[in-house]
Amino acid sequence: MSESILIEHDAGVATVTLNRPERMNGLTDEIMTALPEILRDLANQPGVRCVMITGAGERAFCAGADLGGGGPTAAVRDTDSAAAEPPTGSGGDKLQRYHETPWQLHSMPKPTLAAINGSAAGAGLSIAMACDLRIASESAVFATAFGRIGLSGDFGGTYSMTQLVGPAKARELYLLGDRIDAQEALRIGLVQRVAPADAFREQARELAQRLADGPPLAYRYMKRNLNAAMTSDMRSVLDVEADGMSHTVPSEDFRSAVDAFLNKKKPTFSGR
To answer: Which is the CATH superfamily of the domain at 5-212?
Structure first.
């Protein structure tokens, strides 16, 4: 495993740390080639019940592509801009493979959490937005950043931003590229929690543990419901919900939770 990505397992929480603090955890080809496979593997591990992604150090969660160090944009910046379609095997295909990272975070059947310890910009912000929940240090700053370097944006950021803050605010943040602080990110719904810098790691870990201790089977179908609700009509979502209930009502988790409720105990969930 590359030292640029660290993985830690503890009590059902898998923590994925982007480990290039000297480069503000900027994304390289190596990182973005490895991340999709790492996330697929974690999604398939029964013992992993929550995936938390964060950055090393205090300065940055991820400042986006490392423009000077073989970042993702290096794969596409040399393609012929006049070509209607990039040739097979070109940077366009490579970027599509990189895009498996936000897709995995968005679609895997278990909760994902971005612990935003510092600057989140460009593709780094897009990765954070692809997660189910986001907790930020009070020192974190956010910027789409693409317009500053003449790029249109990638890693699903325009989709996620529009869903999180609405189309008007998403257009403002993309077209103007203004930096916002953690409190403003909280106010507009870009993050759900803000923690003091000196307690950030602890509070992020507590939130991840809360998700890991939750009902994994219910979470699987809950995420499917919520993702369907982003693109489907109500009738379609009702059908998806009905299917999910057909799997969770007869589950051991539901029976044990009812028993715990009746006996005033805290439920424990096995995922069955």
So the answer is: 2-enoyl-CoA Hydratase; Chain A, domain 1 (3.90.226.10)
